[in-house]
Amino acid sequence: MRARIYKPSKTAMSSGTAKTRDWVLEFVPETPRELDPLTGWTGSRDTQAQVQIRFDSQAEAEDYAQDHAIEYVVLRPQGRKPNLRAGGYGENFATNRRGAWTH
User: Fold this and answer.
1) Tens-digit pLDDT string for the chain (103 aa)
2) How far is 96 from 40, CA to CA, in rounded Å?
3) What is the DSSP string of 20-47?
4) What is the SS3 assignment for 52-72?
């Protein structure tokens, strides 16, 4: 069994960072996905590919993998600069604007 340990990135649909603080141990699929001839859906016989285990730290995830003899690869997260505006969200509705309100 092979697994990858990584820290998930934020979703593209939101600027929030929920569910990005934990480390995830996720098993690499052993078999390729197959196309079901009857329904046309893709699926796999590998049930381990559905398993995701969350840990508070990278060290905990590595310890778990070593204790259970799981071969693993650690994917380091890329740093991200916070996108903070001076006025924040309330600046969109400021009454002391110098220019005209346009959309």
Assistant:
1) 899 999 998 887 877 778 888 999 999 988 889 999 999 999 888 888 889 999 999 999 999 999 999 999 999 988 777 777 777 777 777 777 777 666 6
2) 58
3) -SSEEEEEPPSS--EE-TTT--EE-S-G
4) EEEECCHHHHHHHHHHCCCEE
**What is the pTM for the complete model shown?**
0.70
Instruction: Please say whether the beta carbons of 28 and 3 come within 8 A.
Output: yes
Do β-strands 2-6 and 23-27 pair in parallel, antiparallel, or remain unpaired? antiparallel
Residue 88 CB partners (closer than 8 Å, separation 6+): none
| Burial track 12-48 (b if 16+ CB lie within 10 A, e otherwise) | eeeeeeeeeeebbbbbeeeeeeeeeeeeeeeeeeeee
